[in-house]
């Protein structure tokens, strides 16, 4: 398996998004595994601040030289902020998926949904199982 990074302080989804809890809000992005599988990111479409997300439903799209993929909301809530820098520099997702390449900040409407997310160890195991299929 490739040497992917999965920071211990983050939570993850089976759709390859990561979640960092910051008080009563969360920051969301795509994982190192996801950005690696997508290849060079060329465009990111994100919702407007104030938009409402529904857990499991698409909230935007990410386009690479290989494919266009939906971004699925890990939690229901209100979008507080989007990473506007990605409009001009979408490659930040590849260069720093856990840092400058974050996608949105969200205020979850139901904090208990965090309990349904994977910790880094469980996500690593999920990726190892999928990566062995490639």
Keywords:
OB fold (Dihydrolipoamide Acetyltransferase, E2P), 134 residues, six-stranded antiparallel sheet, single chain, 9 strands, alpha+beta, 33% strand
Description:
The chain has 3 helices and 9 strands; from the N terminus they run E-E-E-H-E-E-E-E-E-H-E-H. With 134 residues, the chain is α+β, with helices and mostly antiparallel strands. It has one domain: RNA polymerase II/Efflux pump adaptor protein, barrel-sandwich hybrid domain (OB fold (Dihydrolipoamide Acetyltransferase, E2P), Beta Barrel), CATH 2.40.50. The strands form 2 sheets. The chain has a 6-stranded antiparallel beta sheet. A hairpin with a 4-residue loop joins strand 1 and strand 2. The longest helix has 12 residues, at 120-131.
Question: Can I get a quick summary?
Answer:
With 134 residues, the chain is α+β, with helices and mostly antiparallel strands. It has helices at residues 32-38, 92-95, 120-131, and strands at residues 11-12, 17-22, 25-30, 41-45, 52-53, 58-64, 68-72, 77-82, 104-108.
Helix-and-strand structural type: alpha+beta
Highest CATH level, the class: Mainly Beta
CATH topology: OB fold (Dihydrolipoamide Acetyltransferase, E2P)
Biggest beta sheet summary: 6 strands, antiparallel
Approximate helicity band: 10-25%
Multimerization state:
single chain
Strands, total number: 9
Low-confidence parts lasting 5 or more residues at pLDDT below 50? none
- β-strand percent reads 25-35%
Query: Numbering strands along the chain, what is their spatial order in the largest sheet?
Result: 1-2-3-9-8-5
The CATH superfamily label reads: RNA polymerase II/Efflux pump adaptor protein, barrel-sandwich hybrid domain
User: What is the helix/strand order?
Assistant: EEEHEEEEEHEH
Overall average residue pLDDT: 95
Question: How many discrete domains?
Answer: 1
Q: What is the molecular shape?
A: globular
Cα Rg:
14 Å
Using the 3D structure, state the CATH architecture: Beta Barrel
